[in-house]
Amino acid sequence: MKKIEQPRIRVAISKNLKWLEPYLRRAKQRMPTLILPSRIRSYCPTLKREQLSWGSCDLETKTVTLCTHKIIIMRGIKRNTKKQVALSEKEILMTLAHEIAHFRYPRHGYEQESYARTVFHAMGVIDTCPICDGRGVVPAEYKNE
Questions:
Q1: Single pTM value for the model
Q2: Structure confidence by residue, pLDDT tens digits, 35-45
Q3: What 3-state class would DSSP assign to 13?
Q4: CA dist., res. 99 & res. 66, Å (int)
């Protein structure tokens, strides 16, 4: 029996996003025609500047930029304060799948949304089962908000 080779991943990934590599490898193994980015960068928004999106992609250089934190407003009695909160791995993976889908479908639409969902599921992201109190695992649900 021949051993299945792991596909080569030639993607320059930021140090704090190195944990994405197994997910990219799994997606490429399940989808051989998947177009991977040449570079994945991360950014963290500042408290003074609120971000409008969690990710962006440059189609010419195939660079994907992913946000690692979000800004939330904490409502207080006297005043509101802003706070940085890290995005979950699932949210970052959903954003990555969405941006990778733009390499095949540049515009937002049904095709791009469906392809992003396919890429996300090919990554093999799992959640804990809500019915059995987290003892089992189920495929994670893709939501584009």
A1: 0.85
A2: 999 999 998 88
A3: strand
A4: 9
